[in-house]
Design a protein that fits this description.
17% helix, alpha+beta, 1 helix, 96 residues
């Protein structure tokens, strides 16, 4: 979804009246001509007919002609993977 304001960006996605990607939360990491947003979300599991476990995504957007459009994304597919990313980043930050 394209937007004029970074705060209005979302990954919520609906198809045929069904919310397939449910955005649970988001955090704007950077603003400007290039924006970075982290999302917490759940995807609809058609087989189980319920939302799956929480997932996380970091997206980069570029503002051109007054609107943000997605440029790249990184999916963190599980809580365990998210914890590993946190662990590694904390280790790097603590290095002198």
């Amino acid at each position: 979804m394209m937007s004029e304001k970074v705060e209005d960006l979302t990954i919520a996605y609906e198809e045929d009246g069904k919310l397939l990607t449910k955005e649970l939360d988001k955090a704007v990491l950077t603003k400007g001509a290039w924006a970075t947003v982290m999302f917490r979300y759940q995807a609809w599991d058609k087989k189980k007919e319920e939302y799956g476990p929480e997932k996380y995504m970091v997206r980069r957007y570029r503002k051109m002609n007054g609107v943000y459009s997605p440029q790249s994304k990184f999916n963190i597919s599980s809580r365990a993977q998210a914890e590993k990313v946190i662990e590694i980043l904390q280790g790097w930050i603590k290095e002198p």
